Fold this sequence. Notes:
The structure is a single chain. By secondary structure, this protein is of the alpha+beta class. It is 33% helix and 25% strand. It has helices at residues 4-29, 36-46, 52-59, 63-68, 74-78, 205-220, 230-248, 286-295, 297-303, and strands spanning 108-109, 112-114, 118-122, 126-133, 139-144, 149-153, 156-160, 168-175, 179-180, 182-191, 227-228, 273-281, 310-317, 323-331. A 4-stranded antiparallel sheet has the order 2-4-7-6, with no helix packed on it. A 4-stranded mixed sheet has the order 3-10-8-5, with no helix packed on it.
Amino acid sequence: MKKLIPLILTLGLLLSLSACVGNTSKDSSDPVSENSSSSNLSSQEESSEPTSSEADSSEGVSSEEVSSEGPASSKEESSSAPVSSETPVSSEKAPEVSSAPSEPEAPQQIELALSDTALTLEAGQTTQVLLESNVSGVQYNAQAENGIGIQLDGNVLTVRITEQSSSGKITLTASKADCLSATVVIHVTVEEPSSQPEEQVSLSADQQSILDSVNAERAAMGLSSLRVSSELTGYAQTRAQECDALEKSGQEYGHYRPDGSSWSTVIPGYYSWAGENLSRSEGAWADDIMAAWMDSPGHRANILSSEAEEIGIGIYTSDTGITYWTQLFRKP
């Protein structure tokens, strides 16, 4: 009996070993496996789209390799999803289209308008023409032919016809920087003066004496005689009275007017040259005044000026007993 017990124990150990071996063979023959590789295989069959972890492992990129390349850009991060081979993504930028250069602005054309472009005048007549332009700040220029007298003051053109003038034209130009200039022509017709008797001017004995002395002095120098003008004589008479007014106000008489303006403002309109002689005396005669003027270089120059064509003579005796003498000379 004691001998049987070890045998039974031995047989029990053998049976246990046999059961362990059978479990191993049964597990290997079972088609359903629980290892991780078969589980991954099954999930790939159920889903055709790989997960991000599977994509990394299939590409064989380790975490060390990613870190060695540096941080990925946003474009690289978004490209981790599979891209179809039918629609390749190009990294090239679209060519930039440069805009065509703008054309420079054309210069503005100046337009010049005149109040009159055809004038008909006689010798001794004067008229004015107004100039207007569509551009501000333009520069006007005028040129005349055939002895036609012109004077340009701002946008006012004064035209005067003398005995030496003949029919012709005046060319006007308006110009300004960065603008196209404009040119306009004024046609001037000079007519023969209508036959009128020579102007008769009533002169006092002293006025006539001065006129005769002036023309005698001019004739001695080979100069033409001056014609007396009733208009200038009236202005000369005004200047003689103004000299009296200046002295009565405590001022010295001279070549200025009581309002402070120049003596020349007494002659209105256009003229190419003018001169004035003044004198004052107490009880002197006309011959004495002429002698004093001829002894003065400035007064003598006016009397013998080649520019002078007309003369006006003024004589005024104040209630103070002082007489003022004036001569006005003009070239129209």
